[in-house]
């Protein structure tokens, strides 16, 4: 197996691109895919201040690493979810990583704030993953606004997004379908732009990149994670991809293309943001989801 | 395991309906599902003359059998594709079946007509399955028109249609997506209405029904069949269905609902049929696909 570019020994085969690459050229390929996503979807520019949401897992750490390599100005934002050992270990990975690569970071500690996920889930009698989603989104938005970031970047990859798209299509979740894009524009004055620079890369490619570049990440999944459902869609898509190479990629990006076209055509309808009556953050409701969740207020 | 209705010994478990049934009540259930599909999508009425496309496989023979049970007036239409032993065996099954249940049938013999699939495929240098599709569609349409049928019924089941829908979505085949319905209306004066009365039933349910009612069908798949692709989508959907019961059914029927709504909204745009310059059948082209295929005419 020889590298398509230099003819040296290849270490990876990328079926969907029909190429084999050596370590050096795989690294090049990887950076190019991120660069291409950033430019194609106009995610951010060199002068933008980027907040990278880091969990300690492979996707977010690789993203943080690559953005530095590409010369972008990013700060990692870690939320301590208060999920016992898992949170302690992932926090440690994030701090070690930041020190090793001389990266800036910020920590929001839900335990100190009084909102550790298991406690809020119990008190609000809601599923932990749904609570976790609301709280994370809230603090990512809040910190991005408070600290004047231009854009919020997350480590979602092609498998994440294609499988989520498949799940949303199989259940025709129209509301979610409208939001499945690599870039979500800023809304109002407080909700910053959200971007997914790893969108052109698969889980396997990201894991290979992390391995080759000795990025030390937390391998455990969150112990509270439902996971099962999204894994089923991933498995189903991978089964199809193995037999019909290129399907995953075509499926997702063609969808994005169609959706962007539709959105352009219907730019007229706009939603209006209000300010949360309790905390003042912008929201589409009088009281934001976070405050409804934790302040025990009935709307 | 007890039948939900009579509490006798159940012989089948229908996960997606969350019921177990004995033989008698499964048979009832099966007929009700067909009846419901016929009425829900206004497929045909008691006085209509129905042409059932029969291949000798389980789906088409079960459909033929059930339509008789439900008191509809149907004639089986078998096309001898000229695919060696497979065609001989399937023809035998169809004739035996018709005799046993006292059903009328018609045979179109592509060998006699000079268009056996392997020959046409070779001469037109096209894939056998694509040639077979064109020729079958042509003769089903032609016979239905020539003999004054009101409607053409095929044995497509929920697995066939849901997996085809999945494949068409994964590749965003917009043209095919617009036509994935349990009923396709008649077009022009020659192209009759097409219906799929088994649409509410899965492959497994149909196989169980055939087994319980001793319907003797040809088990072999067509030896020329590509098959692989559609099987991959079926496997992927079954993998999801096993984990998230009800997905297949919701996915397909919700799609149909959305599509029917869209069609209603855009009834204005209509396509116009012409008559084929060679054979006189209605077609959207000057020369129909069949004639372009076999008459060696370049358009
Ligand atoms: Zn190389
Ligand atoms: Zn609030
Ligand atoms: Zn019973
Ligand atoms: Zn013609």
TrEMBL record, chains A, B:
CDD domains: TtuA-like. The lineage of its organism: Bacteria, Pseudomonadati, Deferribacterota, Deferribacteres, Deferribacterales. Zn(2+) 1 binds at residues 3, 6, 22, 25. PANTHER family: ATPASES OF THE PP SUPERFAMILY-RELATED, TRNA-5-METHYLURIDINE(54) 2-SULFURTRANSFERASE. InterPro entries: Rossmann-like_a/b/a_fold (IPR014729), TilS/TtcA_N (IPR011063), tRNA_thiolation_TtcA_Ctu1 (IPR035107), TtuA-like_LIM_N (IPR054306). This is Adenine nucleotide alpha hydrolase family protein. Residues 49-221 form the tRNA(Ile)-lysidine/2-thiocytidine synthase N-terminal domain. Residues 2-27 form the 2-thiouridine synthetase TtuA-like N-terminal LIM domain.
């Amino acid at each position: 197996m020889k590298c398509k570019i230099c003819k040296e020994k290849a270490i990876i085969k990328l079926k969907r691109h029909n190429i084999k690459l050596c370590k050096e050229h795989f690294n090049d390929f990887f950076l190019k895919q991120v660069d291409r996503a950033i430019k194609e979807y106009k995610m951010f520019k060199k002068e933008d201040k980027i907040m990278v949401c880091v969990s300690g897992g492979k996707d977010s750490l690789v993203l943080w690493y690559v953005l530095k390599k590409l010369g972008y100005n990013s700060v990692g934002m870690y939320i301590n979810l208060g999920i016992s050992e898992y949170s302690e270990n992932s926090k440690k990975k994030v701090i070690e990583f930041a020190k090793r690569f001389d990266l800036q970071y910020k920590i929001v500690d839900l335990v100190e704030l009084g909102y550790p996920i298991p406690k809020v889930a119990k008190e609000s009698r809601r599923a932990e993953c749904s609570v976790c989603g609301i709280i994370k989104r809230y603090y990512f938005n809040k910190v991005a606004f408070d600290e004047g970031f231009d854009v919020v970047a997350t480590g979602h990859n092609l498998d994440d997004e294609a499988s989520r798209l498949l799940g949303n299509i199989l259940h025709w979740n129209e509301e979610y379908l409208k939001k499945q894009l690599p870039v979500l524009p800023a809304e109002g004055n407080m909700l910053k732009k959200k971007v997914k620079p790893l969108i052109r890369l698969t889980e396997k490619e990201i894991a290979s990149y992390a391995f080759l570049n000795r990025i030390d990440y937390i391998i455990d999944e969150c112990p509270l994670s439902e996971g099962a459902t999204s894994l089923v869609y991933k498995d189903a898509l991978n089964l199809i991809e193995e037999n019909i190479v290129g399907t995953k990629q075509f499926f997702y990006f063609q969808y994005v293309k169609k959706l962007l076209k539709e959105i352009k055509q219907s730019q007229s309808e706009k939603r209006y943001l209000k300010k949360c009556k309790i905390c003042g953050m912008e929201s589409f409701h009088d009281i934001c989801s976070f405050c409804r969740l934790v302040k025990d207020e009935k709307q």
